[in-house]
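2024-03-11 09:14:02 DEBUG pipeline.ingest accepted 1 chain
2024-03-11 09:14:02 DEBUG pipeline.ingest length=63
2024-03-11 09:14:03 DEBUG pipeline.predict start
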Amino acid sequence: MIRVLRDLVVEAVFAGAMTSLVLGYGAVGLVLLLVGAIMLSLVLSGHRYMAFGASKKLTTINL
């Protein structure tokens, strides 16, 4: 469930960037595009803060 929300946030950032660029707010669009690219690279690399446990072993149980 959290991964779905994470993906929606990344998509919303990219959608905001494209909307800003189309409406003529270039600086805002470029900043959002940069933030979205950083978020996407963190997700794809399995970074700790963006992976939400995807990089952990599924067989270990932490009690």
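2024-03-11 09:14:41 DEBUG pipeline.report Helices lie at 2-23, 26-45, 48-51.
2024-03-11 09:14:41 DEBUG pipeline.predict end
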